[in-house]
Amino acid sequence: MTVLVAPAHRDRPRPGSRHAGVAVAHVRLMILALLFAAAISVIVGRLALLALFAEPQSSPSINAMLVPLRGDLVDRNGAPLARTIDAWSIGVRPGKVIGDKNELARMLAATLPGKSEGEYRALLDSESKFTYLKRRAVPELVAAVHALGEPGIEFAREPQRLYPQAALAAHTLGYVDFDGKGAFGMELALDKQLTDPARRGQPVALSLDLRAQAALESELGQAMTSFQARGAAGLIMDVATGELVAVASLPTFNPNNVKGSNPEHFRNNVTQSVYELGSTFKPLTMAMAIETGVVPSMAKRYDATAPLQVGGFRIRDDHSQRRWLNVPETLIHSSNIATARIADELGKERMETMFRKLGFDHKPPVELGGLAGPLWPKYWARTTVMTTAYGHGIAVTPLHLASAYASLVNGGMWHPATLRKIEPGKTPEGRRVFSEATSARMRQLLRLIVTHGTGSKADAPGYRVGGKTGTAEVPGAGGYKRNQNVSTFAAAFPMDAPRYVVLVMLDSPIGNAQSFGLTTAGWTAAPVVNRVIMRTGAMLGVVPDETRDVDVSDVIPLLWKAEPKNKGTAVAAVRAPIVAPGAGE
């Protein structure tokens, strides 16, 4: 039986259905295209609006990403003193350590010897998420730790403050704390400017001259070692502007390693310590006496034949001449007796006024912090007036004295000391302390102290040095220590046209063979001034010239036995005939 099966009925597309599907697809594509076009239009429109109306990003904010986080400090000639560099920190995440912790602890102890193997093992077993192993690590150390191959140890860059000159000018520069903020010195004083994004890209120029600073510290350190002094201080100051070209305080420290330094060495003896500076005050007293007319003539004489008794107090001379002394001789022989008599004539008001004009009644106005205030007399008795005239009974910083000497020789103008470089023509206005005539007279007298008096060892050929020695006993419990003193020499050069003040102070020097066992300033501090000037004079723009000098022809005839101690260093104006005692009366 044959069965025929009819084929299944197949739906045929209706006429036009295929065309409808294509149309739907076209619509969807058009909608997608329109949405895409709208999106593009929005983006293009937004960019156009930003281009037309948005303000461009300010250049300071762009530059802030390119400059260091802290500005550089440079000397007056642009030499680097402090700068910020990229350093590395090394840390560990204990939870991510995959190696053997005992072995890792052993290798860390060998590579980073700051902790023991046991301490590192305890650190790796701790629940801390992250712990620093070393901050401010040098590249060699980073490479050594990286070679351990432990994924749980991480490395990151961080800024580090670097002082490329190490301990040079440390007390002036100061240092920053661990967070990079100024903590001491000019780093603290200039912290706001050095971290300001708008200004930190421009290095800040200090008044220091790196070459002069190195010479001063070298000579001061050599003297401190030679005389086994407890401390030392020195500076070079521009007499016309008050700029400090070099400032040294010993002992010192390395600002690159503050934690490893002795905290006692952070004290700046130039600005943070006060001293009775002895006979260096005598020229100041003499200048005031000349200024006020108390000393009307260089020939005026004062009785220094015997110690001066004032109540229960007796004033003596260290090198008594046992005769009457005129004004130049008073300073040349550093007579306490004659100076005290002059101060007695000046009186309390005029002496106190002079000290206040010189700024001795307040802290020195310099940019550094932690400045020491003077030890000002509580009561100005007659004896106080006399003793302060030769630097006893009043204590100031070496910076106070340097500023006073600058005004003594620069024409009589006092300028505040500064550690910022002053551009030509922008020197702050000072205040007049002495007249031009008084200043000119004091230049003569200070020069004579070096050519004929106690400061002869400070004379530097061709530099026409003038200055005054000062040796003061150190005060202690129950009085002054007879065998311990502060030796100071305050100088200026060249005296015919002064440019710089140079001051050197040694605290408690011990005599040696070089000084014939003496500890006085003429044998300890004065030679240091000589060497500093010889090393720095030319580099500071003073050309040595042995054919020039101060004209002292009107005062030389007043000197008894006036043969210069340094023959050949003075010009013909100094080589005057020796006159008999009493000349100029």
Automatic annotation (TrEMBL):
Signal peptide: none annotated. GO terms for biological process: cell wall organization. Its main location: membrane. GO terms for cellular component: plasma membrane. The chain crosses the membrane at residues 29-54. Keywords: Carboxypeptidase, Hydrolase, Membrane, Protease, Transmembrane, Transmembrane helix. This is Penicillin-binding protein 2. It comes from Sphingomonas tagetis. The lineage of its organism: Bacteria, Pseudomonadati, Pseudomonadota, Alphaproteobacteria, Sphingomonadales.
